[in-house]
Request: fold
Amino acid sequence: AQSVTQLGSHVSVSEGALVLLRCNYSSSVPPYLFWYVQYPNQGLQLLLKYTSAATLVKGINGFEAEFKKSETSFHLTKPSAHMSDAAEYFCALNTGFQKLVFGTGTRLLVSP
Amino acid sequence: EAGVVQSPRYKIIEKKQPVAFWCNPISGHNTLYWYLQNLGQGPELLIRYENEEAVDDSQLPKDRFSAERLKGVDSTLKIQPAELGDSAVYLCASSFRSDADTQYFGPGTRLTVL
Reply:
């Protein structure tokens, strides 16, 4: 079955520090992968997506993710965290037919 | 451009009561999705519409849940009767045919069943 696993339900960083949110996937076909962010009491907003073009994908708000087939990973990074980055982040896999399977989410906490 | 609109944003009901959620997708988006998001979990697809046709409703509990998308625009998701375990956030999303991989989400309706 196609699935994604997000390692760490909570990640805490200091403002200005590197952000690294981990996502591993399982797929029998070349995957389309996504990162979404969810702020409190809001819907999900697309950060970036990988659709088999460049393996390093740049998204909004300074985030980027690298697709590594050998590691079946699609980790999300940002060089310098900002207080406004505090939110829930979801990795998702397109299983085909426009169906997304989401991970359980990682809550990013940013301290001053 | 207006985003996906959902109402109500919050709903509190007693168990066994009916409840309905409404979604207005982004203008021109032919595909509409309803997701269920339990606390601490990622969204799970309930149903997907292509225009007015439900093309994937395999995860919709049909004994108590129903949905419709009249005229291929707005959609309504209904639960009757509601159970305690239905307390969750119900998200609506839409996408455009030419960029089907990108789904735009509404703010959701938070349902509390007492």
